[in-house]
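fold-stage: in
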Amino acid sequence: MKFYFFLLLLPFASCQSQTNLPTTKIVENESSQSDTIETFYEANKGNDLPSKSIGSVSNGSLLNGKLLPFSGTNFRYFDTTSYLNKRAFVHDQLLKTVLSCYKECEIAFPSHSFCIMECSNEKGGKIAPHHTHQNGLSIDFMTPLVKDGKPYYALDSLGAEHYLLEFDAEGKNSDDKTIEIDFETVAHHLWILEQTARKNGLKISKVIWKLELKDELFATEYGKKLKAQNIYFAQNLTPIINSLHDDHYHVDFELTRD
């Protein structure tokens, strides 16, 4: 089923339809790649005006969007091509939320590294193949993994193909059962994300994650806290949407104050 999603991913995975900047295929080494990303960030990080999310996550736009940094102490964006195609923009209050969240994660998870996946276009609007992500208040977060009880990052560098990874109802990778979803870290990350969102005039309005994984999540210490806070997880998903949301969890936010 994920094959069809892969066909939708091809336009941004193989070409630069939204920008003429070089892709990772053109970058000669790690140093020049870093320079390219830094130059791009400085040129596109956004102005000092407040952001405005117009419409909904599924039918909206973004004014004065802010570009997420490509990386920080304990996080990075998952794909250079996606980043240079301006698919990592968010509302300014969400930018503050994400950066504050990862500062908290430095304390809660001193040895962990996290990955942010796709966000919104610079001005919002449709961003194929996603149905949402249109007003700067949606982010995909890569699902943390473990192997033999230790954080596992070998699959983090797959780029767009990471969306095609599959995990069963127990959180085991379909190709290697020793690679598993770290449910406790997922729950703890979401709990910190909600706390920092509340401090920045936001709250989580919806989490989309594979339906069969929710029982494992809510059985963890922080999963119980998420449930107690009544953070909404999608209850009904089409088969293809359900199958796609295991390697990552999609989070929609809503403004509680401007």
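fold-stage: in (second)
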Amino acid sequence: MNKTAKTLIITASILVIIAILVLVNFLKGKVSTNPDDFVGNTASNLYNGGYFCEYDGKVYFANSNADGALYVMNSDETKADKLSDTSVISINADDSRVYYSMSANTNGSGLGYIRKSAGLYSINHSGHDSICYTTNPVASALLYGNKLYYQNYQKTSGTSIFSIETDRTNNHEVLRQMVSFVDPYGGLIYYGNMDNNHYLYAFDPVTEASGAALEKDVYMPVMDENGWLYYMDPTTNYSLKRYNMSSGEEQTLSTERLEFFNKYGDFIYYQINSKSPTLRRMFYDGSNDTVIAEGNYTKLQTTSNYAYFVPFENQSITYHVSHYGSVNVEPFMP
């Protein structure tokens, strides 16, 4: 083999290696395309911190036994594995990635204590290929379609809602309010207004316009697939109600003062704020009201099989209870 042939072979080999590296790097950073109405987590989970997120038979969760590190397990709680040492909140997931806000706890003295957070990120399902969307504090985020809507805190202007594509393009402010932007339904994102009133508002992701959808005071609004709006009513001591957006029918599900609730399918879990606080469960229509546990709990999350909750006085342990059968509260030890 002459010198020219050897040079050509070496050059061709180098070019092939470069091409392979370019292809691998491209595939590594590739973000999948979701349907326009894809939702990364339930509104109820995100309202309550977004510590658990179920997608395609997997549950991604902040493990309280490991300082809130990101773990994944099967939906039946088998095969739990760590994905990241990072303490996380506001978890969302799709076919290719897990999205989350990086968090750092602060001590507090009330049920509504503030959790500070630092940045919005994603990794692939193996726990690699980290992407950073912002290093600003992000307390809440929603994956809707191929966009992340997130509470963005800036020292100069405070907290407002921003939107960014999952491929990190088109990052911009869409609403100058500090609201929970987590409840999409029928092509709109619903939220409780926080300015002049507490009415139900709707945001259009296409036009980025928003306006009042229902002139009722609402807190933690959750729309279900049948057009029922579930919410806490600030005008009646935060009692739990539901309202049919089509017929106008309204029902009071609990007259107790609620701290928060979580609706999953036919079940509603809720924390009563009273002299004798309890965590309770009822059906979607208010029937079969059952005590789950005595005392104050927080970080209430749901998946297809379980509800998860944490004692307010000891947040290093998580308990769970099955949606089905008799109430049997046990420590969750992944």
